[in-house]
Amino acid sequence: MAVKVAQVLAGRAQGGAELFYDRLVPALNERVPQVAIVRPEGSRADALEAAGVPTHRFRFGNRWLDWRTRRGVARALVNEGANLAITWMSRASQLTRPGACPIAARLGGFYPLKNFRHCDHFIAITRGLAAHIEAGGVPPARIHLIGNFIDESPAAPADRAALQTPPDAPLIFACGRLHPNKGFDVLLRALAGVPSAHLWIAGDGPSRQTLRSLCAELGLDERVRFLGWQVSVNPYLSAADLFVCPSRHEPHGNIVLEAWAHGCPILAAATHGPVELIEHGVTGWLCRNEDAKDMARGAQALLQDPSRAAAMAAAGAERYRQRFARAHILDQYEEFIHAAAKRP
Fold first, then answer.
1. Which fold has domain 5-149+325-340?
2. Which of 20, 106, 136, 184 is the 20 to 30 A CA-CA neighbour of 119?
3. Where are the domains of the chain?
4. How many CA atoms lie within 13 A of 180 on its CB side?
5. Are 287 and 263 within 8 A, CB to CB?
6. Which helix (H) or strand (E) holds 28?
């Protein structure tokens, strides 16, 4: 059976789901023909077309009022002969109506299931999300657990001198959207308890100025560098002695996979995704959520015991190879696609 898959994304340029979409769709296109349906803004559509993926652009406005997108998506599914539509998050799912082909909703967060009532299948990226979907009344046979893979390309370490960081200083790296959910304020308070360490933070968002002000208030300006949004974090992971994920809410924790794949020891707040992924003391270190003192103690323990940190990094790298490597995840998607494309 010849299969073609439409990947429908309403998200904007930045974010973990959007970055994985940009990674997954061209990779899957080498195995199963893909069609991308995305917003017109930014460079995403052009990049997908350059990778050989046929691409349609729609506004993805209000789910009740944007009838042009709803009709346009339906028409694209029919004209492209799609056998399956995979919708990413709520807006894309709401504006992809049933009828042309089966719909699979890929969930990367604990979204209300009322937004996905018309979907035939659900892709959950963690066991916790699979349990959330089942608790919402979806039969287990319609729930498919498939994780993410990350950019596995090696990278030379970022230049410490270029970022005014001493070559021998313990270096902590963190990244993500600068938003209260990500807990960077907790990390800054923890850094105050690790007096020898320097910190690089990659990302941008609404909390940018608040975090800069807190950094100055804590007297950390000499030890913290805000790097802005970075398309690739690989050079910074290669340069760091420790990666910290301080998120208050982290449903998956793609960055755990980033750290594992690039051999960087990881310390994470004990929230949904990291707790599911990390075996404390083996593949990483878990601290209490929103507890700056416990985070500081964990950072000190790993920075002062490099051999222990290196052993955890090696165990994390092996866990990534076994469960989340690119080829492994693509195999799972390909198997799912051929099964789900058969109309229920």
1. Rossmann fold (3.40.50)
2. 20
3. 5-149+325-340, 161-323
4. 0
5. no
6. helix 16-29
